[in-house]
Write the structure tokens for this entry.
Amino acid sequence: MSSEFGNKLRVSIFGQSHGSAVGCVISGLPSGEAIDFDALQTFMERRRGGKGILTTARSEADRPEFLSGIENGITCAFPVCAVIKNGDKHSKDYEKLIHTPRPGHADYTAFMKWGGFADMRGGGHFSGRLTAPLCIAGGIAKQILEKRGIYIGAHISEIHGVKDEPFPLFPDKALFDSISQKATPVISDARGREMEKEIENAKMNMDSVGGIVECAVTGVMPGLGEAMFDGVENKLSQALFGIPAVKGVEFGAGFEAARLMGSENNDAFRMDENGKVFTETNHAGGILGGITNGMPIVMRAAFKPTPSIAKKQATVNLSSGENTEIEIHGRHDPCVVVRAVPVVEAAAAIVILDLLLEGK
Amino acid sequence: MSSEFGNKLRVSIFGQSHGSAVGCVISGLPSGEAIDFDALQTFMERRRGGKGILTTARSEADRPEFLSGIENGITCAFPVCAVIKNGDKHSKDYEKLIHTPRPGHADYTAFMKWGGFADMRGGGHFSGRLTAPLCIAGGIAKQILEKRGIYIGAHISEIHGVKDEPFPLFPDKALFDSISQKATPVISDARGREMEKEIENAKMNMDSVGGIVECAVTGVMPGLGEAMFDGVENKLSQALFGIPAVKGVEFGAGFEAARLMGSENNDAFRMDENGKVFTETNHAGGILGGITNGMPIVMRAAFKPTPSIAKKQATVNLSSGENTEIEIHGRHDPCVVVRAVPVVEAAAAIVILDLLLEGK
Amino acid sequence: MSSEFGNKLRVSIFGQSHGSAVGCVISGLPSGEAIDFDALQTFMERRRGGKGILTTARSEADRPEFLSGIENGITCAFPVCAVIKNGDKHSKDYEKLIHTPRPGHADYTAFMKWGGFADMRGGGHFSGRLTAPLCIAGGIAKQILEKRGIYIGAHISEIHGVKDEPFPLFPDKALFDSISQKATPVISDARGREMEKEIENAKMNMDSVGGIVECAVTGVMPGLGEAMFDGVENKLSQALFGIPAVKGVEFGAGFEAARLMGSENNDAFRMDENGKVFTETNHAGGILGGITNGMPIVMRAAFKPTPSIAKKQATVNLSSGENTEIEIHGRHDPCVVVRAVPVVEAAAAIVILDLLLEGK
Amino acid sequence: MSSEFGNKLRVSIFGQSHGSAVGCVISGLPSGEAIDFDALQTFMERRRGGKGILTTARSEADRPEFLSGIENGITCAFPVCAVIKNGDKHSKDYEKLIHTPRPGHADYTAFMKWGGFADMRGGGHFSGRLTAPLCIAGGIAKQILEKRGIYIGAHISEIHGVKDEPFPLFPDKALFDSISQKATPVISDARGREMEKEIENAKMNMDSVGGIVECAVTGVMPGLGEAMFDGVENKLSQALFGIPAVKGVEFGAGFEAARLMGSENNDAFRMDENGKVFTETNHAGGILGGITNGMPIVMRAAFKPTPSIAKKQATVNLSSGENTEIEIHGRHDPCVVVRAVPVVEAAAAIVILDLLLEGK
């Protein structure tokens, strides 16, 4: 199943970084939904490189062509296929790496799995480039959710130890919008500037840094998700670990919950004046027993530092069977986290729309 | 799909905490495998309560009865059904809680999903009791993996801030065995005693504590897992979030990777004298691009503190629509992490055997 | 996935003919549904042998024990596990057959797949005995459908060339009930008596006969099912071929449609006085493009003659590698079709309830 | 899941008849397989219209563009996306039909499911046009199977009552090749000419005819497939009912088995001089208990007559709520069966390759 995700809503992703195109097939979308292509493009731009010193110079327009499933701008009941042609390929930058796997990349594991047949130029199907079609699917899902009062936003929560403020207990659309318009999508601009400095330092040192993205989903009704293996956390984590470089996922208080007392971590239920139940804190991240409780769903995904660094690194030569070293050239983000923010939103949007379509 | 997991190997779990029985159906096991029932029982005992002051007094024997799939102690190609009768139920301890959902439990979300029909006595299908059938399936998977040279071990990595030593780069079966025989399964006994103190303190204060379990899998061939959504991390996290109280999952350096430079986090490939490739560090936790690289798979799961605490807590009355308070009586672990150690191993074993059966 | 079926409603079947028990796990049932256990037992009795000369003498009570998922007779949101203990085993009748596969049985294919480890006593997991748990799941599904105005009935459409009348264009519950109470469940009793003669003849000749079961589902709303591979026909056929001995499945006019002109086969749409659309004929069997059109769903399943016959048959000895002969003793139906009628209803009920839960 | 099929090998089909393109994503193909594009095109041509009086005049080249998954003509481990642009659309022929559903088509059921949003021009996603991407996937699967000694062939078994000879007990590649080169793919050319007459008559009478396609798969090892719901018959039938107009599927003797005695229908096992087991007859169609027995897999699919006929037909007007009539103009096959032959092969190839990849 590999590059497919979802139950009622299914997303299937195809393409290699240096192949002809990347794209996706999205099936199970509600019919009759008008797609705002400008908004989708704006969303896609947030993921795209080429905007500044902090991200790579690769500059495709990333404008998807829709081959099916949308007629006159409206979903027409059948699977949507969207394609982005790869216009800006520099394969020779990478070709020499085939026998000397790059540390931290999937070169070695792909070789062990497919014995040299995998098209790993530019990272192949493992490349961050494949998050573009994920953003097409997620961007469409996000629009459909917004019409149902469900909003999704994310910010950089941490880069190389520099932390942004956390989301407030009830983040709102205005906050999400404001963050999404920033070049460095954070709540505190002061912290954002510190993060930028960390990234610039890493770049100057021919190195890279990682970070954490925090994402919140508001407006979700209570009762979505299933017990045990098909709960909200199970599905969100399955999707989030599908984003390249993610090495950890947590919900609500997450790992910090392991350091709290039960009396601190439990979220007291309260009823507001309209009889609506809420919790005074949200250590559960909106999920109890795998099922939504109506509070914002809050998750964090940890990204490792970009494995492609200009520094010399130790590796092996799989042909000669000897230890060797490599230097990786080409264009690489010193930090993928900036561009990963909308990708995390996209993954969350796909899962939440799938849950919504599956119903209580 | 809810309480089912896996592709080639499928585990389906049934039962409620205070129903007649809990159990599982396991399909897709290799045929012709002799099951060591004593070893399975020993494994089950590690999960069971009633052993000391640190765990609950519930004392069922938890001895599974096998209704199908095993003949003369050998798997016979067809689905295995195993059942544990529930002998020791005290439903009335819980019945009064129906209208006042317990903070941190699934009472409220189950009510919002199923409107009062869910059998939530003792936590129903969300109870830690349901990890017993998970351990049957996982214990069998573990035995089958061991015959193929794959070993799984886990220890308490942290309780309420007290940290055990981490696993060494290459943990071995002897270490796993030694840990598994301890009442408090840790590497450093000194740290274990500190953890025990934290748990006793919590109990005395009518409170509870959470913690982290670290699990390692050794002997896995490189090349297992798929790109993107069906990788080793995706599947392990989907399984681990199926264990009650888990709120975070990470692999290798995990969240800490977000604080490292690329040059620190990348694991240098090296070749040993026999031409076997290994990495000098294991920040990747044995997984690159979702695919095993032959190094030990290392994961950590964060458990929140037991939500059932004797302290008075604020909640709502769903019948009267008013804010109220509850006190939870009955038997409860002040810390589920001790008993969760084999459960994490069980979940990992199911995933790894499934991956192995799916092949490269 | 083998012995599991369904999307929202999942049925997982376990057990071997001569093992301890057979049973099923049913997950995804709506909660709050009262189960009529007497009606379920009556339904189970229709499948059970021991009633007359036409069926085998095996006489277990086939009374399921429910281990989970039903409390106080009401579905309680969690997976239902039902078990029937196997009380009446005569394994030695079969044991000698292990090396000489019985023609028409799964002995040979099981041997080639599992190399002798499969528990094939009495047919193992391939035995008609496994339709008992299918009938538990189907019987429960049928009750839930009836409360929603959906009725399912079936009759023997043909045995060894003797044909019953077909269902009328709009069969109703009264017809279904009347058929279901007959020892030989047919519309025309005269034809039923002829069928009985065919079966008796076969028995006297130490032989067996096959037949066809026709099943109809009424009251299904238009719009259920999906295009292409997840349509109503795809799912019903997947379930029906799960019943032992089924070798053909058709819908509406089925194979006969291949002999009609388009102008004969097309069902003209008409509107009744209440504005309800119907078709004047039902060659489509209630399904167009894989989606229900509101007319009765009509399907037929062809059953091969019971492969177990007392006549001497040619086979091979897999140990010695020589051609040989076998005679099969023991209790065997001369015709499984009589008992298969409720089994077809059960399979249909599971599929239709699953479709209903998935929604339009 | 709708337009997706398979477990290890996954095929996802997209496109509407009068949209921009049709295509498919194929994931799970073995890597390192050289694709013979000429052979694929020859296979595609067999399905394409425009060749004679017996098929429609639509004349796209149907030449797929491969966007991913194949590099330098070799499968490169990642999902294959193939696209065929729709060049020859005459949408206005169909547009007037929206409110008056065509008998025998999915117009009405699509309307009831998606309430007018479905793009049903030219049949939309239900059109026979969507069998083109199915043939891309199936044509590639067929090539991969042939390299492993597995051959798939099909012929028209019957058209409007005129029957071709059946396949011999052991059909071979030469026979498959010879049939596949005929304009009317049959074994007996004399019968083929009678069939052509039936089709011409139907056309002259502004009517249509249906028929039956018989397909055989040779060279499959014994032991593929699973018991109960995931057997070879279950999967093949699920795929075959995904082909538009299929209303019946049978294996081996199929419905005719219902008219045989057990002693006639049972296939006697024999051992040849090399110790290879075969059966003297093949009423089982190569499948016992859902598992392959090494004999040719034989299946038949019944196709209803093309629902689009030029004759005036009774239908309803869904806007005005009145009974009315329609005449369907435009280009339509008087018989889809001729073009369906390679489509049945394609569906079979996908299933068999999936089974092979899943292993014993």
